[in-house]
Amino acid sequence: MSSRLWTLGAILVFSSVCLAQGRGRIMAGDPANANKPYDKHDLSGTWTRNGTPGGYGGGGTCANCGDRGFSNDVPPFTPLGQKMFDANKPSYGRNLGSPEANAHPEEHIGRRRAVPPANGTDPYQTCNPEGVTRALIYPDPVEFNVLPDKIMQQFEWTYVTRTIWTDGRKLPDDPDQLRWWGYSTAHWEGDTLVVNSNGFDDRTWVDHFGYPHSTDMKLEERYHRTAYDVLELTMTITDPKVYTKPWTSQLKRFRLLPKNGIKTVDGWTGLMEDLCAPADEVESFNKRVRDPAGGVIH
Amino acid sequence: MKTKLVNLLALAAALLMIGSAVFAHHGTGVSYDQTKAFTVKATVTEFRYANPHPQLFFDVKDDKGQVVHWSGEIAPNPAQLVQEGWGRKRSEAALAAGTEVEITLAPSRLGTPVGVINKIVSAQGESILGLTPLGNAAAEGGKK
């Protein structure tokens, strides 16, 4: 009997830890890495904000890694920004009109208006690119490959590569072609890597709660490696067409994965090829499962 | 007395676990109602190990003995399942058409015979596809 009590006590403690994780409790990196030397100017490696053991899965983020939104502290919209925000129908967050949504007025309305994907407008539901901010917030791993003239960020989810140039070039003032992933350059300010980007296609969302941006959005990312296995990121969006003042993100924290941290049943290590493809299989899923679940019968 | 204490602790633990899962995912399944999850005996008719989510189609006999065809969404996608030991070959073998299984699923909020699958158990009692609760990721309201 006493062993059962101990087991249940352990479950209670574990549950409390889970709750604390959701509230963003402060936690250091793995204590085993505490004394490992590292170069603050070397961000290479595979990083993750995911809380599951393998660093994958797309669910909640790890303790104190930040939540899955850009920030709950949203600046007032401009009239155009409000119109763009209202047009977006996300499928994440608390269900629109639900008791849970009504019970959390402290959360911005963007986090309390989810509708079934069958009735939503999330560009990701049709496998369009996530864009920089959303990809960085998504809790699947991202690999930084540092080269002499650029840093390549490879995201596991959608298996896409983004290029950040470090060769001293300047961003284009008015790029002829807008890009889903924008144009990016970076430089060091002390121990902080500062990445500046512009030229974004406005069909991406800032995060999965449907916050919009315009093609004029300028994005600054500030990366700071604070331990061997901890990388911190803060982002700031400046987009006066949509937001009345710059919008700074919640602190996002990544953990470094060991080289064999992601492994298939065959023992193959490295990022998974996690694609929203092929199109016909995605369409089949939508027609046979996703849409009927939302009341849309084909 | 001890039994009552154990039951009380178990209830508290269960409530905390449910609360933490909902909080961690910052919301509940948009299309599915986890509060109405149920378990049924089912016969697999088709299994698709595919993106963006694997899908399981199966027949269930209702209260009147009529066969109802269900569609089930499995939240972890192949990239996640293969890391948890459930590669394509093993998964497709375990869920071949005609296989009898026990399925726990949360149904569509709109009453259509579609659900997100929380658990699949074989006739031999093996948990199929699942080291983690299958329905958790779908609580995010879409792929993962």
Keywords:
heterodimer, A: 298 residues, alpha+beta, ten-stranded antiparallel sheet, disordered N terminus, B: 144 residues, OB fold (Dihydrolipoamide Acetyltransferase, E2P), five-stranded mixed barrel, globular
Structural class of chain B: alpha+beta
Going by helix content, strand content and strand pairing, the class of chain A is alpha+beta
Give Rg of chain B in angstroms.
16 Å
CATH second-level architecture of chain B: Beta Barrel
Number of distinct beta strands of chain B = 5
Quote the beta fraction of chain A.
15-25%
Q: Give start-end ranges of low-pLDDT stretches of chain A.
A: 1-28
Poorly predicted parts of chain B: 1-28, 136-144
> What string, H for helix and E for strand, traces the elements of chain A in order?
HEHHHEEEEEEEEEH
Rg from alpha-carbon coordinates of chain A: 20 Å
The largest inter-chain interface, given as chain pair and residues per side, is: A-B, 71 and 58 residues
User: Can you say what the CATH homologous superfamily of chain B is?
Assistant: RNA polymerase II/Efflux pump adaptor protein, barrel-sandwich hybrid domain
| Coarse shape of chain A | globular
CATH top-level class of chain B:
Mainly Beta
Report the helical percentage of chain B. Answer: 10-25%
- With helices defined by DSSP (H or I, 4 residues minimum), what is the helix count of chain A? 5
Percent of residues in helices of chain A comes to: 10-25%
Q: Kindly, what is the distance between the CA atoms of the first and last residues of chain B, rounded to a whole number of angstroms? A: 43 Å
**What percent strand of chain B?**
25-35%
- Tell me the number of helical segments of chain B per DSSP (H or I, 4 or more residues long): 3
What is the makeup of the main sheet of chain A? 10 strands, antiparallel
